[in-house]
C-alpha cells in the first residue's frame, strides 16, 4: 500500500469499493469451489454516462451493483448460493451520446466480449448466469440480449437477461424467449402524465438510498422538474443532439422530489422481484 497522492480525496467509507461483494475479492480456489457447489452468477451491465448535475457518471454501475448485493443475500436465504461478477461498465450510449463523460462501444464489440466471458464462466462449471442492466438505453439493452444469446449459443450454460416486462415490451422482445428471465413489474409510481426516466425522481431516490455520499445535495433540491411528456420522450430517445436539446441539464424527470425512503422501497422491491424470478427459473430448469 502506498499513501494517496497529495491532494487525492480520501476514500469515503460510505461508498462501497467497485469490487465490493464480487468474486474479484475471492481466490480462484474459492471461485472453483463455488462453481462445484452449484453457485449461480449474477452480472450487471452498466455504462459510464452523464446523470445530470447531481449524480455521478457511474450511477448505472453503482445502482445495479447495490441491487445484486441484495439479490445475493435474498438468494442465500433460500438456499441458492450466488457469486457476483464484477460489473461490466463499457456499454452503449445513444441517448447521452452528445454529453461529456458518456462514452460507448460499438454493440458488436460488447456482444463479443460478453460471449467470450460467458464461455469462460461456463467452462469453469457455472451452469446459470443471470445478467442485469443498469442502463435504460434501448440499444444497450438490445446488446445485452444479443450477448446473452451469443453466450447461450457458444456454451452449455443457461444464461439469461433478467428484466422487467416494461423493458421487454419497449425492446419488442418475446417474453417467452429462453434468453430472458422476466420478473414482475416494479414500475415506480409517478403522477399521471409526468415522465421520469433519467436521473429524475426514481433514479435519484435510489442513489440517495444506496450511495448518498455521491449525490450532490447542494444542487439537487434546486433542480426544476423537466415537466416533459411522452412527445418529448420520443424526441429524447432519438439520442445524441436531440436528447441534449430536450434536456440540456442532462436529467429527465424530477430529481428534487426524490427521497431516500422511496429509493429504499424501490431498491428492496426490485431485489425481491429479481430473486423470486431467479428461484422460479431454477425450479423450472434445475
Ligand atoms: Zn441511469
TrEMBL record:
Keywords: Hydrolase, Metal-binding, Zinc
Annotated protein name in UniProt: Creatininase family protein
Organism field: Streptomyces chisholmiae
SUPFAM superfamilies in the cross-refs: Creatininase (SSF102215)
Family, as annotated: Belongs to the creatininase superfamily.
Gene3D superfamilies listed in its UniProt record: Creatininase (3.40.50.10310)
Pfam families: Creatininase
Cofactor(s), by name: Zn(2+)
InterPro entries, per database record: Creatininase-like_sf, Creatininase/forma_Hydrolase
